[in-house]
Design goal:
The chain has 4 helices and 20 strands. By secondary structure, it is an alpha+beta fold. It has 3 domains: 62 residues, Trypsin Inhibitor V, Chain A (2-Layer Sandwich); 61 residues, no CATH class; 140 residues, 2-Layer Sandwich (Trypsin Inhibitor V, Chain A), CATH 3.30.10. The strands form 7 sheets. Strands 6, 7, 8 and 9 form a 4-stranded mixed β-sheet that branches. It has a 4-stranded antiparallel β-sheet with strand order 17-16-19-20. Strand 19 and strand 20 form a beta hairpin. The longest helix has 39 residues.
């Protein structure tokens, strides 16, 4: 019995092809695994610990972040001391946290104080200076860099009331941190006399305008008109017009009730005792009408005492008294 050589060759060739295909498949499979492992390794999240750079100089902090393969995102902010300038005030994320390499770290860097020297406040009005100091502190991110020592010291002088005549620390003094300013403020001239203006015969509105412009002290009274008198008019004043009186002495002003008052209107005398101030402050009386509209009745510089103002308004209006734009009191207008 003889062997079929061609059959043997076919059998060997067939198995050889299978072997070669298997080896090739295995090589491809291993290659795919290797490539996958490579990309996983390349794209994997390498973790690093955030260093503590708070309180360090910016350059030192940047070097430490660079070593950890971290990058800064810098923000500037004023601080309470000029000695902080250039130092890291805060950082985010916090020290000790593990983050991915390449992460940006937010650094708050001090610019020092918003101002370096004390301004010259002498000859300026104390109320304006208060507003300026609020602005300075707001610019410094709310840090109370400057404050005014209370209570203020007052003394009579030739300067107008409310004017700063002395300050401590002196102008141009260095600011190294939060500082309290001491001021001596003018009360105005002692026993200063004024010429009393003529108010008799004026309407209530005109009388209020004149009082506002002259700054005299005042006290209103009301009564029913008699004889030929007109309603809502000044019919008497004490001291008399054109006389000389101490500026602190109230001028007593008598006004008459309206001649015709509508059913939905009310006439009255607003009264409120304002605490005594060392010098006159801006006082305002407004009325909020039932419609919601706000109406200005009177604005004047007033040093304190019983504040009286006549009014004629729709019923259910609300009278609002304010000093230096701060509401003190409100009162509803009834029947």
């Amino acid at each position: 019995m003889g062997f079929d050589l061609s059959s043997i060759e076919d059998y060997v060739a067939s198995h050889l092809r299978i072997f070669i295909l298997g080896v090739a498949g295995l090589v491809i499979f291993v290659g795919i695994i290797a490539v996958s492992v490579f990309f996983i390794a390349v794209n994997g999240e390498e973790q690093t610990m955030v260093p503590d750079v708070t309180g360090k100089e910016l350059t030192e902090a940047l070097l430490e972040l660079q070593v950890k393969e971290l990058y800064p995102r810098i923000q500037l902010r004023y601080s309470q001391s000029s000695r902080d300038r250039g130092l890291i005030l805060e950082q985010d994320p916090k020290p000790g946290q593990f983050v991915k390499a390449g992460r940006r770290i937010r650094l708050i860097v001090s610019q020092g104080v918003v101002v370096n020297r004390v301004e010259n406040f002498v000859s300026r009005n104390i109320d304006e200076v208060r507003l300026d100091i609020q602005t300075i502190n707001a610019t410094a991110g709310g840090i109370p860099l400057l404050s005014i020592k209370e209570p203020l010291m007052y003394q009579y002088s030739s300067e107008s009331a409310g004017t700063i005549i002395e300050q401590k620390p002196e102008p141009l003094a260095n600011i190294s941190g939060p500082m309290a300013l001491e001021f001596v403020v003018s009360r105005g001239r002692e026993n200063q006399s004024i010429a009393v203006p003529k108010l008799t015969g004026l309407s209530i509105d005109k009388a209020l305008e004149l009082i506002s412009s002259t700054g005299i002290n005042f006290y209103f009274l009301t009564r029913t008109k008699t004889g030929s008198e007109s309603g809502e008019t000044v019919v008497a004043q004490l001291p008399a017009a054109d006389s000389t009186a101490n500026k602190d002495l109230p001028v007593q002003i008598t006004v008459t009730h309206p001649e015709d008052l509508g059913e939905s209107e009310a006439f009255g005398l607003f009264r409120y005792t304002i605490p005594q101030n060392p010098y006159p402050l801006s006082v305002r009386l407004d009325a909020q009408l039932p419609s919601g509209e706000r109406h200005r009745i009177f604005t004047v510089n007033y040093s304190g005492g019983e504040f009286t103002v006549p009014y004629k308004l729709p019923i259910n209006s609300v009278l609002i008294l304010s000093m230096l734009n701060r509401e003190l009191y409100r009162e509803a207008v009834g029947n």
